Amino acid sequence: MFTSGGPITAVVGRLLSGGDDLWLRLNPVTVNTAITKLVSGRSGLTLISFNEHGHLDGSELLSYR
Asked: Looking at the record's lineage, which domain of life comes first (predicted)?
């Protein structure tokens, strides 16, 4: 799925039981075009990685929300 950082950080915040407070901390540091990985299984969604942006390191394309 492709979406902006806001919805991604909202999902991550809920998965980590941080709610809106965690969203407020995560959203400003979310990198544009970062990769977040989730796995859907029997127990629901599991966060595998958040805000991966190694594909942009050393690039002028790196930008934050």
From this structure: Bacteria
Of the candidates 60, 52, 58, 45, which has an alpha carbon nearest to the alpha carbon of residue 10?
A: 45
Structure tokens at 18: 């941080």
Q: What is the pLDDT of residue 1?
A: 74
The amino acid that residue 9 corresponds to is T
SS3 labels along the chain? CCCCHHHHHHHHHHHCCCHHHHHHHHHHHCECCCEEEEEEECCEEEEEEEEECHHHCCCCCCCEC
Q: CA 35 → CA 43, 63, 65, distances in Å?
A: 22, 14, 14
Q: Is residue 22 predicted with pLDDT exceeding 80? A: yes
Contact criterion met (CB below 8 Å) for 64 and 29: yes
